[in-house]
């Protein structure tokens, strides 16, 4: 039988299932590229303003590394520099999740076995997944290029930029395809692929922070940045990315041919012959989540240490009068001067907090995966009820979220204290400031839990949208398109700057805790009364 027989049918099925997800990714990519053009035109309409902005960027390695690459005082370069770092990641993440969703997750659910029992080739599901994920990346890149050309930007540079968005998705779709063959379940495949994406981004970021450009050549994300649309336009690097994608696809097919359906090539980590510590839902949830939590703790600590080390350049930045500093003071709501350093420190804490808000979202997505895989239903054959099962996961998630922010606050505070502050006073202040954001992150998770209880089939999409909207409307991403101060629609907006406050922000924290409690209770009540496994 032809190995790819039935690919067309499976591709159409995958497209039908993607209709509630892929269009939103494409809309996000295209709209953000246009928003950046409008933002640059509105806030840096003259050459002098663009040049002032570039001087600020050149003097601060952290700001320079956010966009990556060389910046020029031109609309097209500035707009793609501001949006490129995010759009390349968005395209890669969308493709990565799509490939795993239509390959490894289908095997976990047992649907692949049913499909392959018919006249369907062994490689057809993988081929369909790669076609759909790659097509989504291509459409996102092509529509972005068309939108930028329509906005008046140079056609050649716009096509190069769109090509970079497309190949970022192709490469990480290939990495996800390889991870799906190596691992035995979708969770492990997702962790492997996301770890690869995170490592690639960290290498690219480190290259721009340190000025060591050679580090970019070690990172697939760095390769895309090195294409430099509207500047050098290294089309040959796009060709390299396409070649690497083809190699990854070929490797995935070879690995697929060497493994049995439902198995992986990586050896399974066997647990102890008996596990007396698994006495309840909390210990079970801890065993399921501890590996991912430890990886998150390491990543958060590294970022916090890096942020603490950049406090000295921040002092230099805020000492220079410019329109950028004026915008920052408007965003922070404080006067320029020494207090602005506290605003900068709070901004870095918020960056970590918005990222950590993704952790409870992923845990709710994990609940849904446990349900659809049938593992949770098997547990319910024991005295463990669904509410006890869910409550165990929620407790571990809540404590894990708090631990992430505590580690961030301590790491940030210690490095800051050693560099320019005082350990006994600054470290506790950073810890309290980081912990003040935890209720907002819990609130995002509670929204996801309510969606899981009420609309289980749409819960994963709603969970991702909740985090994306929280981040997009927030105080970190919002200023990129002129939304200074964020939006009241997201919970972090209501947490005051704890680095300026003289007391712990008790009122907003209490209010967010009350809202989180109500949403959590409603979600658990809905979970209790709905059909399980649907």
Automatic annotation (TrEMBL):
Origin: domain of life: Bacteria
TM helices/strands, residue ranges: 22-40, 83-102, 123-153, 159-179, 191-215, 235-256, 292-312, 344-365, 394-418, 430-455, 462-484, 504-527
Keywords: Membrane, Transmembrane, Transmembrane helix
Residue ranges of coiled coil: none
Claim: Transmembrane helix is one of the keywords in the record: yes
Listed name of the protein: Polyketide antibiotic transporter
């Amino acid at each position: 039988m032809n190995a790819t027989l039935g690919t067309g049918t499976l591709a159409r099925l995958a497209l039908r299932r993607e209709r509630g997800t892929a269009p939103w990714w494409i809309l996000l990519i295209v709209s953000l590229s246009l928003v950046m053009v409008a933002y640059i035109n509105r806030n840096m309409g003259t050459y002098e303003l663009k040049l002032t902005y570039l001087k600020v960027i050149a003097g601060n390695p952290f700001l320079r590394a956010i966009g990556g690459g060389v910046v020029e005082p031109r609309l097209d370069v500035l707009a793609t520099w501001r949006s490129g770092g995010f759009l390349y990641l968005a395209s890669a993440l969308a493709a990565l999740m799509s490939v795993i969703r239509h390959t490894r997750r289908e095997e976990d659910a047992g649907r692949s076995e049913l499909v392959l029992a018919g006249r369907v080739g062994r490689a057809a599901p993988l081929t369909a997944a790669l076609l759909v994920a790659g097509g989504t990346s291509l459409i996102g890149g092509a529509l972005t290029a068309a939108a930028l050309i329509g906005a008046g930007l140079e056609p050649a540079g716009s096509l190069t930029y769109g090509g970079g968005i497309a190949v970022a998705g192709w490469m990480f779709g290939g990495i996800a395809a390889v991870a799906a063959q190596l691992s035995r379940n979708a969770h492990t495949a997702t962790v492997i692929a996301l770890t690869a994406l995170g490592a690639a981004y960290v290498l690219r970021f480190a290259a721009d922070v340190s000025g060591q450009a050679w580090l970019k050549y070690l990172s697939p994300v760095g390769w895309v940045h090195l294409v430099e649309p509207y500047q050098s336009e290294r089309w040959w690097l796009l060709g390299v990315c396409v070649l690497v994608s083809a190699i990854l696809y070929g490797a995935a097919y070879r690995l697929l041919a060497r493994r049995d359906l439902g198995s992986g090539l990586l050896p399974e980590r066997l647990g102890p012959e008996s596990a007396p510590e698994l006495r309840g839902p909390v210990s079970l949830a801890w065993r399921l989540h501890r590996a991912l939590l430890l990886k998150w703790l390491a990543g958060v600590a590294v970022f916090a240490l890096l942020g603490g080390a950049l406090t000295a350049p921040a002092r230099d930045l805020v000492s220079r009068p410019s329109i950028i500093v004026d915008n920052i003071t408007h965003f922070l709501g404080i006067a320029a001067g020494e207090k602005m350093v506290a605003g900068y420190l709070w901004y870095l804490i918020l960056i970590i907090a918005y990222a950590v808000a993704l952790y409870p979202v992923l845990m709710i997505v994990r609940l849904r995966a446990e349900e659809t895989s049938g593992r949770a239903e098997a547990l319910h054959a024991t005295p463990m009820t669904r509410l006890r099962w869910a409550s165990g996961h929620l407790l571990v998630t809540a404590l894990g979220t708090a631990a992430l922010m505590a580690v961030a606050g301590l790491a940030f505070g210690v490095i800051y204290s050693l560099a320019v502050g005082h350990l006994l006073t600054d470290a506790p202040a950073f810890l309290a400031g980081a912990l003040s954001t935890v209720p907002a992150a819990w609130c995002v998770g509670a929204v996801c839990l309510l969606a899981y209880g009420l609309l289980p089939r749409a819960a994963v999409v709603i969970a991702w949208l909740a985090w994306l909207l929280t981040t997009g409307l927030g105080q970190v991403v919002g200023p990129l398109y002129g939304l200074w101060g964020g939006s009241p629609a997201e919970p972090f907006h209501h947490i005051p700057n704890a680095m300026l406050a003289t007391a712990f922000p008790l009122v907003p924290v209490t209010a967010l805790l009350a809202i989180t409690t109500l949403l959590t209770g409603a979600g658990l009540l809905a979970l209790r009364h709905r059909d399980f496994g649907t």
